[in-house]
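Quarterly update from the structural biology core.
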Amino acid sequence: MSVRKGLGRGLDALFSDNDYSERVIDTANQEAETEIEINKIFPNPNQPRRIFDEQSLNELADSIKIHGVIQPLIVTKREDKYMIIAGERRWRAASIAGLLKVPVIIKDYSDQKISEISLIENLQREDLNPIEAARAIKRLMVEYNYTQEKVAERLGKSRPAVANTLRLLTLDQEIIDMILDGRLSAGHARALLSIEDKNQQIKLAHTAIQKHMSVRDLENAVKKLLAPKPKPIAAMHQSIELRELIYDMQRVFATKVTVYGNENKGRIYIDYFSRDDLDRISELINSFKNR
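Predicted structure, tokenized:
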């Protein structure tokens, strides 16, 4: 194994329990960086990240072929091999690139510390799936007694941003699966959080996918769904002419007709109860156009 020196800021500087001012690394404080055969390295089986984008890995592999692995992996020794603490994506890409060795920094951490670091290291990735991020934050809070404020401090995010990410886990599992496989973005998911009814959430999520709705489109659809419905004009407040008009429309369309608003301005709702019913009403309306 060839050994060289590298700057030692690394993950234990980022994740130590000291204050930020004490985490500033003196450039004189260096750690040994070495190269290890890639087939002696294996991923952490408890790695919180489960999804690696194939295209992104191939792009990183192409870069590694030209520039090599610039940032060393963080590993810990396990018998005659080395388990990855941080850098599994680089390790995978280096394998694709055909490298025989990769640069590493060897750390001696407890299993608990390794798990904590793996969670935080993954949360700092821009391409992390929002559901994976939410689950990792929840693990930090449950297993390591992190508060939302502490998570936010570690990640350089605001506390509301952390809280909003956690809220994604309250969505129905069907919608969570849509986010995990990339059919819905975090922005779409946050728009759906405003809807309390799970069935309405799922229905609108499917609509967003089928119609290729943008986040803004979905937000508008949610606002429309949640907007208070205007009350129909009570029969006692309707003029004789308006009551006769409603009666005539119900007779023509052979279904319930409701008027919202007042005699000067409002909306007319025509109910239908099946696809055949809708087709029948549509044909009636079209027949009026052709007169």
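Confidence is low (pLDDT under 50) at residues 1-30.
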